[in-house]
Write a structure and sequence with these properties.
The chain is mainly alpha-helical. It folds into 2 domains: 9-39, no CATH class; 40-152, no CATH class. It is built from 7 helices and 2 strands, in the order ααααββααα. The chain has helices at 14-19, 28-36, 53-69, 77-103, 122-139, 145-149, 163-173, and strands spanning 110-112, 118-120. β1 and β2 (118-120) form a beta hairpin. The longest helix is centred in the middle third of the chain and has 27 residues, at 77-103. The radius of gyration is 25 Å and the shape is elongated.
Length: 174
């Protein structure tokens, strides 16, 4: 019975082939080039025109760092816009809460009804929602310590030996 494209074991990444001494016989140069080349080109998506002033400022702040790490491509426009707009919303809501707290003591955080009942104010609820949206979308880009733990930056490993030792190793082991 013939298989399909999903049959068999998944292909091993080039880094595993390099560590195993190139059992695939594809050549170390080809494997190293494949390991260092990103599957999707690293490039900033165009900034959307609908971002608020705060969201636009957040976009400008994070895109440069994401490019340097190699964690962004043109495919990430919506996720990044979602994160930036959530941060912008959170900043606006926090300013409104601070303004209300200054004008009427605690009115920005707690809403008091005529009956004396209290609950979180609408502004606090909106700020909490924006914070959750920003944290969820930001985790996609490694914006928390836990999310960064699973991310891998595109930085070359460097030389294992200095040149004299490497040349000597090449002389005897090639």
């Amino acid at each position: 019975m013939a298989g399909n494209a999903n049959s068999g074991r998944p292909a091993l990444p080039a880094t595993v082939h390099i560590l195993r001494g190139d059992p695939s016989k594809r050549g170390m140069a080809a494997l190293q080039a494949e390991a260092q080349a990103p599957a999707i080109p690293v490039q900033a998506p165009p900034k959307p025109g609908f971002l608020s002033a705060e969201g636009s400022a957040e976009w400008d702040r994070v895109v440069e760092a994401l490019l340097a790490l190699g964690w962004i491509s043109t495919l990430d426009g919506m996720a990044l816009a979602t994160y930036c707009e959530a941060v912008g919303d959170w900043q606006r809501f926090r300013r409104k809460i601070a303004e209300l707290n200054e004008a009427m003591e605690g009115a920005g955080d707690v809403q008091t009804f005529q009956s004396g009942a209290k609950q979180l104010s609408v502004w606090r609820q909106l700020a909490n929602d924006a914070e959750q949206r920003a944290n969820r979308a930001g985790a996609l880009f490694g914006f928390s310590p836990v999310a960064r733990r699973a991310m891998k930056a595109l930085t070359p490993q460097g030389e294992l030996f200095n040149h004299a030792e490497r040349d000597a190793a090449d002389k005897y082991f090639s």
